[in-house]
């Protein structure tokens, strides 16, 4: 080692590195080269200074984390705000404060509105444009969708399939056919409640819908399902409640067979 230096101390922990056989700090493992001044200190760093730098580093990380969380919250709020302004012109759009435990503590009371998100839409789809459907597809907290007058010319149920966060869906319209319902069962993996009114959905659609793993409630009104489709629904293990209204192809015998196969399902058959 050079005899011209006052000392050789570790830049990380301040350990005295003189008289070491190996050019590595035994305290923290940091390597040094006696011939390269930038790899060591001439005097041991003060413990206070080291802790100050560590504190600055930790505070910087915390500040960056808070900034990221606030930015992420603002981005979600702004995205939903734009969607809300467009969609409310076509129907009913509901918003609420979503549960964000961390942000509830970080955000001051006057900024809690940033947690507001759209959770429900009730819209006649005839007036919706491509941008409207794209905006809905980006709303992560949209849980309740109610769509009427779904037409093939507007994209049909393929549009609804992109709303991955839906847990409840109401469909009214002639374009909700067997194929569309089968695709819904495959695409909307979070869907728990499905209401179908006035759609040409029959036995084939029910066979596909029976594969839905998350559906707990199904309501069918003025559809084309018969006894075969009803027994296909008996294979849906997640189903807890089934409501039937104006299904002329379902017989009393079919209902009795369903009840025998699935006594655990709450079956309601509504009259006019």
Topology readout:
Elements: H1 47-87, E1 91-97, H2 101-106, E2 116-124, H3 130-137, E3 144-148, H4 157-160, E4 168-172, H5 178-187, E5 193-197, H6 203-209, E6 217-221, H7 227-233, E7 241-245, H8 252-261, E8 266-270
Parallel strand pairs: 2-3, 3-4, 4-5, 5-6, 6-7, 7-8
Antiparallel strand pairs: 1-2
Helix pairs in contact: 5-6, 6-7, 7-8
Profile the largest sheet: 8 strands, mixed
Helix and strand element order = HEHEHEHEHEHEHEHE
CATH class descriptor name? Alpha Beta
In CATH, what is the homologous superfamily?
Ribonuclease Inhibitor
What is the C-alpha radius of gyration, as a whole number of Å?
32 Å
Approximate strand percentage = 15-25%
Q: In order across it, which strands form the biggest sheet?
A: 1-2-3-4-5-6-7-8
* Total discrete domains: 1
Q: Unreliable segments (pLDDT under 50, ≥5 consecutive)? A: 1-5
**CATH fold-type name:** Leucine-rich repeat, LRR (right-handed beta-alpha superhelix)
Instruction: Give the N-to-C terminal Cα separation.
Output: 100 Å
Q: How confident overall, as mean pLDDT?
A: 87
Oligomeric composition of the shown chains: single chain
Structural class: alpha/beta
Number of strands: 8
Number of helices in the DSSP assignment:
8
Spatial shape: elongated
Helix content range: 25-40%
CATH architecture: Alpha-Beta Horseshoe
